[in-house]
Amino acid sequence: MTTVAVVNMKGGVAKTTLATNLADALVKREDCKVLLVDLDPQFNATQCLLSGEEYVQRRQEGGHTIVTIFDDSPAPVSAVNLDAITPKLDLGQIKPWKVKDGFDLIPGDLELYRLEMAAGQGREQRLRRYLEAIKADEVYDFVIIDTPPTPSHWMMAALLASSGYLVPVKPEPLSRTGIDLLRGVVERCSNNHGHPIECLGVVLTIVETNTVVYREAIEFLDKNGVWKGKRFKNVLPKRTKLAAKQGSQKLILDLDDTTLKSHLAGIAREFLENAANG
């Protein structure tokens, strides 16, 4: 089981689009079993996969969320019967939600905002420990973590749980600056926690190939000492209709867009090659 965080220090770079569609392509085109973890407090990945009605219904039925993994607060004691304590779940008892055959989800949860992540608590290690708890079952080939677009304890938890990371980059100057800042965050995580993590590549997203900024982005990545050789050949082309369709749980492979599908399939193949060689 290989765990990969999809990360960028900047929002608006199609990070969630890449995470959800890569997971879907690995399942449908490469016959992999994938767990997607929605660690972004805005839980956009969850909304790409589940309607609001389905999400609410599953929550009402007791479905676990990302908060279940991170909430290690003491079990509440009954005010009537002090001996009656609601048992806390062991991490291995937390169940993902099935999206489709071979594709499971740890859904996001707005309540993640209420959890504090103070130094020394060890809470940032809980996702790693959860994945270790389920790894013995060898259920998944890949775990893909969608992360928040800002440096935070949640991003740190994702990196600590991962052996590799994938960087979506929109071809624009600010995004290129962001990936250099990201490198510093990853290096601190690796050095401070003794946790090596490998860059599995950089994927250009929201691409218009006939633009100057696209050509400049390629030149920057291919000549940069850190990112040279990391750029995926396939890209995610810009499609305004994609964002609209995601709101109704339509992913790239559900659309009538041969070019977009071809690029996504290529990204999935490059991902598998890099993961095997990482």
Descriptive tags:
about 280 residues, alpha/beta, Rossmann fold, seven-stranded mixed sheet, 7 strands, globular
What structural class do helix, strand and pairing data support? alpha/beta
Describe the global form: globular
Q: Quote the beta fraction.
A: 5-15%
Order of helices and strands: EHEHHHEEHEHEHEHHH
For the CA atoms, what is the radius of gyration? 19 Å
- Spatial sequence of strands, sheet with the most strands: 3-4-2-5-1-6-7
Helical content stands at: 40-55%
Count of structural domains:
1
How is the main sheet built?
Answer: 7 strands, mixed
Q: What's the total number of strands?
A: 7
User: What is the residue-averaged pLDDT?
Assistant: 86
List the helices and strands and how they pair.
Blueprint: E1 2-6, H1 15-30, E2 34-38, H2 44-49, H3 52-60, H4 66-70, E3 97-100, E4 103-106, H5 126-135, E5 142-146, H6 153-161, E6 164-169, H7 173-193, E7 198-204, H8 212-223, H9 240-246, H10 258-277
Parallel strand pairs: 1-5, 1-6, 2-4, 2-5, 6-7
Antiparallel strand pairs: 3-4
Helix pairs in contact: 1-10, 5-6
